[in-house]
Amino acid sequence: MATADFEARQLLKAYRKGLISDELFEAQMRELQTGTGKYVFNGKSHASEREMIRALLDEYRCAENFASEYLGCWNEVSDQDCVKGGLRVIQQREAYHAKLLEARLRELGGSPQCTVSTEQRTKEMAVYAAKDKTDAQKLQHVADQIHDLPKVLSFITDVIDQIQDDQQSKELLRSLVQDEMSSAQWLLEACQLMNGTKAAA
Questions:
Q1: CB within 10 Å: which end of the chain, N or C, has fewer?
Q2: Assign residue 43 a region: left if phi > 0, alpha if psi is -120 to 50, beta otherwise?
Q3: The domain at 58-195 falls in which architecture?
Q4: What is the DSSP string of the chain?
Q5: Domain ranges of the chain
Q6: What is the pLDDT of residues 11-57, one digit of tens each?
């Protein structure tokens, strides 16, 4: 309890100095009073629906930006025209998603914070930008990661299920999930075609 009182005093000081917004102050105070946030994204509790949505929008935007980047690199070194055609569509789709997500994040009073770690960037680029790996190998790499699509998309769908008030964000996210499913279907079918295996679940 003493810790909560100390945190409340620190929040009040920051608020009075104009260091935090009214909305953030209220959200943080609510979280202190209840002990935990009502809304959960990626295992972290958030005090308000808006705070949860902003966290998702930022992480999702970051992931889509990076996907657009590595898919573009893959397309440049692709050795199959049939793969290039599909990759081009998916790469453009991911770039557009990132723009939509950032726009909505800013509309909700947030700003881009999330970045891709150097370790993840190096790991993914070693696969997708590599000239010594075939499209078949790269498609198999993707298929291995997305074979359980509901699980892969659960970080988005779990938030969608919690949204009650912000219907605009909810439907934007639902539409993007449909796009993700379309992209995944093409990638899994292309993997099956190129590798002669049943990659799709």
A1: N
A2: left
A3: Up-down Bundle (1.20)
A4: -HHHHHHHHHHHHHHHTTSS-HHHHHHHHHHHHHSS-SEEETTEEESSHHHHHHHHHHHHHHHHHHHHHHHHHHHHH-S-HHHHHHHHHHHHHHHHHHHHHHHHHHHTT--------HHHHHHHHHHHT-SSS-HHHHHHHHHHHHSSHHHHTHHHHHHHHH-SS-HHHHHHHHHHHHHHHHHHHHHHHHHHHHHTS----
A5: 58-195
A6: 778 778 888 787 787 777 766 655 455 889 988 999 899 999 999 99
